[in-house]
Structure formats: structure tokens, C-alpha cells
TrEMBL record:
Catalysed reaction, written as an equation: L-fuconate = 2-dehydro-3-deoxy-L-fuconate + H2O
Designated gene of the protein: enosf1
GO biological process terms held by the UniProt record: amino acid catabolic process; carbohydrate catabolic process
Protein name: Mitochondrial enolase superfamily member 1
Family according to the record: Belongs to the mandelate racemase/muconate lactonizing enzyme family. ENOSF1 subfamily.
Assigned EC number: 4.2.1.68
Length: 415
């Protein structure tokens, strides 16, 4: 079956997470977790679902950009696309009249990610496999030695899952009381790795990091995330002041485009045992290449919607492997956990074969709006089994959260 794409629809779907400060950080103080949600219809009835993540009002701009590229997709068959996926990727990213907006960065790239995510979802559904398995089956299996026993990596993942860390205990806008409660709950559920938001006020950061350490103890892992708040010198002195709390990494210490700045920060913090992590706003593979070449990061944080979907993320996974830098994907947003779990499973099974210093982010928000939500067991992502890329949303959720006409928003606006 050819699966000719007959239409592409895109909707602006937003969740009012800012009301309770979920997802807040030093630069995004009032995020409403949102998606530009894409559905591809085909002549045989099969659909493909895709999304890209944003944090509120920006979604309307991404929706326009998706509409602008729709004409490059509608009318093509899945077979035509996947038989020359590289050519199709180039068609989307190199359109003569739209390339000026990027190239391969910003709003237009987010839009292309949403569309390509839907195409990959369609392909995996057509093959009757979860996306990670579609990718794994494309390359040959290898056997790795894992601790004291031999297990194929795929079997290992199906049994144990992929290790995760949580960001949900310590968004910047949460009170100390809430932070304590959420840490207590998370520890009971088996979490051992925690990320705390920092960057707005040094004294606050010291208090919150101290509290986190008290709650999680000396042996669990702590990471800090500044969301680009500092300049280079400020980042070095600020993080040095937080070194006593033993963070494994500082994430996005400065502008996401400042490769040499990250290199300077990495060099300065190495003696303190603190690495630099970045990637959620690293806009394409070329940037990642230079970050790796400049030893400017010690943890690669791929993002399933920032880069040009699976296509570009695979290139980054391979480069990270070449440079022997662990990949710890970003997933702080709606739908990002659902998507990126497929990529990190593929990374482990077919590329890195290692779990050393590796973990995938998890945030405990909004999974109930997906038809195949992530399954977390004992702080591990369990491999998804349903065909596709796990980003189909419940139609009822899409309708009630569509902006501005959905019930959820009309209620808020009429208050
Ligand atoms: C605005 C988002 O919630 C952002 O804070 C997420 C992030 O930085 C992370 O998960 O890491
Ligand atoms: Mg972050």
C-alpha cells in the first residue's frame, strides 16, 4: 500500500500549566505547555500524528509555519518519502522561499520537526511497530556485555527499561513545602536522580539546593538547570558557589549559541567535578558538531522537537558516540517524554550500548492526554509497545485544550 497523504491539519493545543508554575524556570516564568499538533490523513485511512513543543503564545507562529510547509507533504506517498528520506528532508529544509527563515533553526525548524514526527509516526504505524523497534530493525543487532551477565540490549531494555531522572520536584516557581512533598513522594516511587531549577537568585538557589540534598541524601544524583540565565563569567562563579551541593551537571548555563562560552565554563568547572549539559535549544546538528569538537559539553541533551525529527537526531546520536559523550535527552515539556524515549532506546540498543552516566529526563505532567502514554517503572522508561511514535493525543483532550476556543480556555478567559 502506498499511503498517499491526502491532508495535513495542524492545531494549537495549550495546557494552562503556568497557573500552578509547572515547568517554570529562570527564563520561562509562566510557561503554558503547548504543542502544534499535526495529523496526516492518508488515502487508506491510516493516520500519522506529530507535534512540536512550545510554551504558550509562540504556538500560533509555529502553526502558521506548519501550514506554510504543508504543501510540500500533501500529495506525496509514504513510500515515495521513505525511499528517499534524505531528499524529502532536504525538500522541507531547503525550500527556496522559506529557507531564509532558518535555515534549519527557529520557528521553521520546529514546524518541520512536527511534520516529520508525523511522517515517522505514520511509517512506524504502517510497519506495525513502535518507532524505536522500526529503527532497531533497520540495523543489525549486536551483543553487549552488561555487568556480569550477557543479555541482548533489546531484551535488557524490555526487562529493565531505560534509566530516568525527574525534574518534576523542583520547578523554580514551586514553594519549599511543595518541593519537600514531591521529593518525599518521588523517593518512595524509586527515583534516585533529581534536577533542580536555578539561576534567578543565588541565595534562593543555595537554600533550594541544600533542601534538595537534605531530602535526597548524599548518594542520590542532583543536577542543576539555569535555562541560559547567566553570562559566562557569572555562570562560573554562580555554579562554583553551588559546588558544595555536588551537582553532576549544570544545564544551559548561558546562551545556547555560545559554543566557546560553554567550552570556557566546562574547563572552569571540570576541577569541581561538574559537567556542562545542553541541547534543548541547540537548534541543529551543525551546532552539536561544534559543541562536541570544542569539548563544550559533557552531556548531550537531544530534543525530539527542536531538531529536524528522527532524521537529525540520529546524526547527533552518532556524533555523540564518536566523541564518547553520553546522551541524556531533554523531555521537559508536553509530549517530549513520549517521543524521546524511542530515540534513547535506539541509542542504547544500536549505538552506544552503554548506560554509563546516561539517563533520560522525565516530567510527570500531562501524560493522561496521550493515547499511548509513557510507562515508568521504578524510575525507568519501559519500551513502548504500540505501533507509532507515541504522540497521538486523545481527541477529547485536543478539543478541550485547543486555543482559544477549547472549553479549558474559554473557562479561564471568562473568569
Ligand atoms: C520551560 C520548560 O519547562 C523548561 O524549563 C524545561 C527544561 O529546561 C528542562 O526540562 O530541562
Ligand atoms: Mg533544561
Amino acid at each position: 500500500m502506498l499511503h498517499k497523504i491526502t491532508s495535513l491539519t495542524v492545531r494549537d493545543v495549550r495546557f494552562p500549566t503556568s497557573l500552578e508554575q509547572h515547568g517554570s524556570d529562570a527564563m520561562h516564568t509562566d510557561p503554558d505547555y503547548s504543542v502544534a499538533y499535526v495529523v496526516l490523513d492518508t488515502d487508506c485511512g491510516l493516520k500519522g500524528f506529530g507535534l512540536t513543543f512550545t510554551v504558550g503564545k509562540g504556538t500560533e507562529i509555529v502553526v502558521c509555519a506548519v501550514e506554510a510547509v504543508a504543501g510540500l507533504v500533501v500529495g506525496k506517498s509514504l513510500q515515495e518519502i521513505v525511499s528517499d528520506f534524505r531528499g524529502f528532508y532536504r525538500l522541507l529544509t531547503s525550500d527556496g522561499q522559506m529557507r531564509w527563515l532558518g535555515p534549519e533553526k527557529g520557528v521553521i525548524h520546529l514546524a518541520i520537526a512536527a511534520v516529520l514526527n508525523a511522517v515517522w509516526d505514520l511509517w512506524a504505524r504502517a510497519e506495525g511497530k513502535p518507532l524505536w523497534k522500526l529503527l532497531v530493525d533497520m540495523v543489525s543487532h549486536r551483543e553487549f556485555r552488561l555487568d556480569c551477565f550477557f543479555l541482548l540490549p533489546e531484551e535488557h531494555m524490555l526487562k529493565e527499561g531505560y534509566p530516568a531522572y525527574t525534574t518534576s520536584c523542583a520547578w523554580l516557581g514551586y514553594s519549599d513545602q511543595l518541593l519537600k512533598q514531591l521529593c518525599t513522594d518521588a523517593l518512595k516511587s524509586g527515583w534516585t536522580k533529581f534536577k533542580v531549577k536555578v539561576g534567578a537568585d543565588l541565595e534562593d538557589d543555595k537554600r533550594r539546593c541544600r533542601l534538595m540534598r537534605q531530602m535526597i541524601g548524599p548518594d542520590n544524583t542532583l543536577m542543576i538547570d539555569a535555562n541560559q540565565r547567566w553570562d559566562v563569567a557569572e555562570a562560573i562563579s554562580w555554579v562554583s558557589s553551588l559546588a558544595e551541593f555536588k551537582p553532576l551537571w549544570v544545564e544551559e548555563p548561558t546562551s545556547p549559541d555560545d559554543i566557546l562560552g560553554h567550552a570556557a565554563i566546562s574547563k572552569a568547572l571540570a576541577p569541581l567535578g561538574i559537567g556542562v549539559a545542553t541541547g534543548e535549544q541547540c537548534h541543529n546538528r551543525v551546532m552539536f558538531k561544534q559543541f562536541l569538537q570544542a569539548s563544550a559539553l559533557q552531556f548531550v541533551q537531544i530534543d525530539s522537537c527542536r531538531l529536524g525529527s528522527v532524521n537529525e537526531n540520529l546524526a547527533v546520536l552518532l556524533m555523540a558516540h564518536k566523541f564518547q559523550v553520553p546522551v541524556c535527552p531533554h523531555a521537559g515539556g508536553v509530549g517530549l517524554c513520549e517521543l524521546v524515549q524511542h530515540l534513547i532506546l535506539f541509542d542504547y540498543i544500536c549505538v552506544s550500548g552503554s548506560l554509563g552516566n546516561r539517563m533520560c529526563e522525565y516530567v510527570d505532567h500531562l501524560h493522561e492526554h496521550f493515547t499511548s502514554p509513557v510507562v515508568i517503572h521504578d524510575a525507568h522508561y519501559m519500551p513502548p509497545k504500540d505501533p507509532g511514535y507515541s504522540c497521538e493525543m486523545l481527541e477529547s483532550s485536543v478539543q478541550s485544550h485547543q486555543y482559544p476556543e477549547g472549553d479549558v480556555w474559554t473557562l479561564i478567559m471568562n473568569k
